[in-house]
């Protein structure tokens, strides 16, 4: 596959950047999306799909997609509208869509609103809180992470995020009373550098998991929806969210190799099982 070509698209409140690998006219397009993860996280996974065109993009506020508005937070509706506009700009028929984490949340909103744009949607580990028995604790913790970020910076906030997302099983009702994790135990900075532009901690953390999806629209959509989760992340928040979404849709949860980011092949210093993950994704798309 040739090197990707980069394109820009002005949308309300942002300028989006997206990359195209291959010839868009050569067959069904596979679009790979994350949130807040940008296109740089999909290099390895895209390399397994050289038999067709692949599109990746940076969500608003992440990577190269700079925001032009003055608000601090983004909603899944905004991200879904961005995806809708990118697909319109591509000028192709219905695409196959893979969404990871927040990208899966945003993809669910896209499919509920614009099902004609997506042929098959694989939603991998959407961290949806509303389907969980501990939804109130999860949403309250996300709010606390946001407040911690704006009060104390990225280190303390990210430590709380890691503690939340790596914990197995439902959060206890007194989770908020547990001692805050030490950023140093995760190799995170303990001093506040003053930056407040992190797309996860400052932009998406409160709106992503708390979003309440339209399961009636999803159940009747023309899009074929596959909900997936990593075998190694069982019990964790995003895996539990995926299982809850699958149950609401009346479909089986499909297990993929690896963990929450099982498709990574060294991006961000992380290694999953990209070989196995790509095979599982190809199977899910057929």
UniProtKB/TrEMBL annotation:
Q: What UniProt keywords are attached to this protein's entry?
A: Hydrolase
Which spans are transmembrane here? none
Q: Which SUPFAM superfamilies match?
A: alpha/beta-Hydrolases
Q: Please give the biological process terms from Gene Ontology that the record holds.
A: glycerolipid catabolic process
Where is each AB hydrolase-1 domain found?
53-172
Entry keyword Ion transport: no
Q: Gene3D superfamilies attached here?
A: alpha/beta hydrolase
Q: Which GO terms describe its molecular function?
A: triacylglycerol lipase activity
Q: Which domain of life is it from?
A: Bacteria
Asked if the record carries the keyword Hydrolase, the reply is: yes
Protein name listed in UniProt: Alpha/beta fold hydrolase
From the broadest rank down, the organism's phylogenetic lineage runs:
Bacteria, Bacillati, Actinomycetota, Actinomycetes, Pseudonocardiales
């Amino acid at each position: 596959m040739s090197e990707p070509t980069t394109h820009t698209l002005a949308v309300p409140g942002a300028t989006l950047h997206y990359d195209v690998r291959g010839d868009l006219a050569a067959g069904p397009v596979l679009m790979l999306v994350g949130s807040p993860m940008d296109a740089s996280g999909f290099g390895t996974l895209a390399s397994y799909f050289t038999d067709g065109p692949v599109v990746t993009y940076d969500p608003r506020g992440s990577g190269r997609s700079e925001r032009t508005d003055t608000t601090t937070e983004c909603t899944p509706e905004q991200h879904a509208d961005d995806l809708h506009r990118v697909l319109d700009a591509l000028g192709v028929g219905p695409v196959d869509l893979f969404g990871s984490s927040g990208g899966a949340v945003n993809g669910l909103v896209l499919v509920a609103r614009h099902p004609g744009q997506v042929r098959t949607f694989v939603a991998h580990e959407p961290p949806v809180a509303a389907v969980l028995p501990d939804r109130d604790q999860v949403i309250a913790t996300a709010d606390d992470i946001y407040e911690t970020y704006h009060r104390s910076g990225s280190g303390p906030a990210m430590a709380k995020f890691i503690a939340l997302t790596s914990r197995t099983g439902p959060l206890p009702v007194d989770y908020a009373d547990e001692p805050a994790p030490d950023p140093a135990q995760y190799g995170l900075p303990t001093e506040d550098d003053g930056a407040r532009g992190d797309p996860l901690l400052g932009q998406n953390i409160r709106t992503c998991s708390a979003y309440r999806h339209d399961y009636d629209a999803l159940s009747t959509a023309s899009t074929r929806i596959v909900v997936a989760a990593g075998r190694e992340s069982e019990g964790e928040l995003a895996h539990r969210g995926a299982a809850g979404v699958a149950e609401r849709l009346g479909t089986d949860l499909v297990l993929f190799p690896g963990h929450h980011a099982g498709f990574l092949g060294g991006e961000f210093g992380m290694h999953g099982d990209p070989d196995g993950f790509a095979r599982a994704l190809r199977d899910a798309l057929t």
